[in-house]
Amino acid sequence: EPQVFVGDGSALQRVRVRRISASFNLGIPLDLQQLANQAPNAELCGKRLELKGLRPRWTAKLLPNGLVKLQMRSADTAEVRLVSKKLARMVRKVHCAACTFKHWEVQNLEVVADLPFRLDLVAAADMLSEHPVHFFVFSQTRTLLTVEVKEFGIRVCVRSTGSMTVCKSKELSVATDPLKALV
Question: Is the pLDDT of residue 29 over 90?
Answer without folding.
Answer: yes
